[in-house]
Amino acid sequence: MFTEQDIKALCNREYETIVREIPRTKIECSIIYNDKIIWKKQNNMDENIKSVHLYSISKLYTALLCCIARQEGRLDFEKSITEYLKDFSLFYGSNDVSEDVTIKRLLTNSSGLFNNARLGNNFYSCEDLEKHVNSISGCKLLFLPGTNYKYSNTGFNILGFILECIYGEKYETLVEKKIFKPLGMEHAEFSSTNKCLNPSTGLIATFDDALKGVKALISKNSPIDLLSEFDFANSLYRIKDKQISGFGYGCKVFKCMASSFCIVTGSYLNEYVVQVWSKEYRLGMLLYAQNEITKLIELFDKHDLFWETLLALQDARKIKSVNPVACNTKPEINISNHEIKNYISNEGSFIFLFFFNEDCICISNDKKKWIKLMRHGNQFVGSSYTVEFEVELARFYIDSDTEFGTFYRNDMEFTLKEGDKDWYQNEYILDESLEENEMNRQNIRAFNRVNKIYFTYQKNRMYLNGYSSLGRIEKDTLVTPYGEKIIIYKDSIMIGNVKYIIKNKKGKN
């Protein structure tokens, strides 16, 4: 029998390893089991910090509010958004596909919408949710609805506006009345700035109030009746047959042996928050951190308090299955003895992969940190990855905490090395004069709005920021994997409707 004391001992061991490696990182973390907070730790947290920004965990509350609206008969997840927004339209290519964008596809990031809107985003605030949503209407989707995943703030902001329309009340008022108050979250609120982002990223709460939200999701006697029976792990939206992991309602759903668990993460600058739970095991975890976030996430992959506890609980139930724990490959594994294959997604993301043996593959984003996945039926499974090959080895489908969708075999040389023959790289900076005109500010797509970009040429291939492979349409016109046009001028380039001006040049131009 795996007891509370066992859980505490396990969490202490993993937590102490993390804080020993990154002692300056500020961390607050708690484990809930059987409706009780059984383990809680802090490291370097400032006592003056009363509330924390929960960022994308906000999406989970928007999803829950949608579920409540469905239970009340106000919202149908199978219906198109045009049922609720009569003059709203979205296109794929030149085709109006608005009817295919359903409430469920917005909830599961499978609508094809991009992450940010033209009016109201992480760079320019918009106080009016309706204006923000209207600025999305008429835009082109990244893929046909229901055929892939793409993380999207805009999808949840549209849901927030639809909730306002069907209830006739402000989103913030609805969440307060239907979620915060029943759960006793007295110190939870939504940001007073960037209000259009509230349904997707605006939640602010004390750590203890956020824990009340976690507890409600795993309790069999939740103050919100719907949650007593509903399990978000059952909300997985499958874009292909036999899929076991992917996006659910406002969260990601992962398979762990014989059961599933849910996870939501949020981050911005030097802050990171993760909420993960299993209703079946009545186990939940909330972690908030500041500073050295990248290193923390890497360490958490190897010392995951929740994952290790869930595995132990499953083992206590004597579930017999392949142990799919992901880990760094051991030093004795000689990478040079294996054929490393390159794969690329439609969006330009890279995955490197090799077969360690018949029942084990290793994957990496950078050829430095390799993760082992063990065979589980016709799939290869790890703590945060699921890979399923299609059409022999020509392509594979992947679910993970960072990548979703199909990756295709590609034998191009992706390594961009300064000094290679015919190599050059230009650095461009955003033309800030565009921001002087309010209309230009509103029409610049946030997807492209970064302060600095790099354009690299090597071996007849062109790359944006050393990452996205570009295609050529005409002599001076390229296209990104998202379908955005890039027009090259002598001292500037246009990406979509955003102008960047040359700053530095390297190599042979």
TrEMBL record:
InterPro entries: Beta-lactam-related, Beta-lactam/transpept-like, Diverse_Enzym_Activities. Gene3D superfamilies: DD-peptidase/beta-lactamase superfamily. One of its GO terms (molecular function) is hydrolase activity. Keywords: Hydrolase. Residues 53-193 form the Beta-lactamase-related domain. This is Beta-lactamase family protein.
